[in-house]
Amino acid sequence: MEDTALRFFRSAIETPSPSGYEEPIQALVRQYITPHASEVRTDLHGNLIASVGDTEGPRLLYAGHCDQIGMLVSYIDESGFVFAQTIGGWDPQQLIGQAMTIWSASGPVPAVISRKPIHLLTPEERKKVVDLKDLWLDIGAANKACASGLCRIGDPVTLDLRYRELSGDLVSGPGMDNKTGMWTVMEALRRAATGSQPLRCHLHSVSTVQEEIGLRGAKTAAGSINPSVAIAVDVTHASDCPTIDKQKFGDISLGAGPVIFRGPNINPGVAARLIELCHSNSIPYQLAAIGRATSNDANVLQIHGGGVATGLVAIANRYMHSAVEVISLEDIDNVAKLLSLFAGSLSAADDFTPGL
After folding, report:
1. Rounded to whole angstroms, how far apart are CA atoms 195 and 165?
2. Which of 14, 22, 56, 211 is catalytic?
3. Is the dihedral of CA 187, 47, 39, 342 positive or negative?
4. Which of 168, 261, 281, 288 is the most buried (most CB within 10 A)?
5. Handedness of CA 302, 308, 309, 311 (dihedral sign)
6. Which three-class secondary structure string do you get for the chain?
């Protein structure tokens, strides 16, 4: 991975992007991809769309959502403690004792989130899973007036956005879901644009918004691009750690390459092309199956308009929707390589209609 690409990835992990509040990370994406794209635009919904290639060729859409789960300030009490609702799917247990940041108009406000200490819990309370209403944010304010001067209702909140290097090529931090996918679709465009052969397709790499609250950005992006082929990139659960049943969830490991999905939400020709490209270019890959509509951008891309030939490539991720999500840098590098090769292989001669 090139140094500039790695710096972009690290900066993305350290940049806030709760669903509906993606402007800071989209500014970062725009700065990185503009030198390599023919056109970069932001639509009314907030999706950032970078385009390159033959405008007369088939329209190819790559979608990687940039939003992450977060919280939203909803109440400040008289003592200056801040309460928040969730954005996206949280396990409240993951929030206890976490360092947080409230992103106010005047800048980041450090906070901690917790509950009363175990020593003060009743025996009944100790047996229960914590409820979100029993957690609060402490920003060190003396009273409501002080707290209200630092943040206000509707300000987004994230976990402390740390990027930590582990052993080997593994890295950890919140927001790997799905800034990894966003990075791969932008990096794929950069590589495709600088390749030795001109593209025969019109590639649109989209940093989609609001995936965590209903796949909303991918739906509107498809509406403006109207692709004939689309590939969503998101994370999937790694099963290479204790307590996860591989028979139920599949055999997925960090460092074993892109995860190519097969199933009814996936066009068989697109999946076959991705597998073929891995074989012919010595890219390690893993297979995963899903027998229903996916819970990511591939869902809405497939059923846009009269139908889109849709693929799903995933990145193995441990501890999803937590402060310590873990991924492999080699995996995301290989996903970007695979996507750039797919774009380079696509031409007007391709027909992914099943059975043809």
Report:
1. 30
2. 211
3. positive
4. 261
5. negative
6. CCHHHHHHHHHHHCCCCECCCCHHHHHHHHHHHHHHCCEEEECCCCCEEEEEECCCCCEEEEEEECCECEEEEEEECCCCCEEEEEECCCCHHHHCCEEEEEEECCEEEEEEEECCCHHHCCHHHHHCCCCHHHCEEECCCCCHHHHHHHCCCCCEEEECCCCEECCCCEEECCCHHHHHHHHHHHHHHHHHHCCCCCCCCEEEEEEECCHHHCCHHHHHHHHHHCCCEEEEEEEEECCCCCCCCHHHHCCCCCCCCCEEEECCCCCHHHHHHHHHHHHHCCCCCEEEECCCCCCCHHHHHHCCCCCCEEEEEEEEEECCCCCCCEEEHHHHHHHHHHHHHHHHHCCCCCCCCCCC
Nearest to 6 by CA among 342, 283, 341, 332: 332
Supply 137's token pair: 């944010």
How far, in Å, CA of 284 to CA of 127, rounded? 45
- Is the whole model's pTM more than 0.90, yes or no? yes
pLDDT in tens, 302-356: 999 999 999 999 999 999 999 999 999 999 999 999 999 999 999 999 999 998 7
pLDDT digits (tens, 9 = 90+) for 153-212: 999 999 999 999 999 999 999 999 999 999 999 999 999 998 888 999 999 999 999 999
Burial of 120 (0-12, 13-18, 19+ CB in 10 A): exposed
* 341 CB-near residues (< 8 Å, 6+ apart): 277, 281
Segments making up each domain of the chain, as ranges = 3-68+174-345, 70-159
Class of domain 70-159 as given by CATH: mainly beta
- What is 3-68+174-345's CATH superfamily? Zn peptidases (3.40.630.10)
> Which residues have a Cβ under 8 Å from the Cβ of 218 and sit 6 or more positions away?
63, 65, 206, 208, 211, 232, 297, 300, 301
Residue 211 annotated among the catalytic residues of the structure = yes
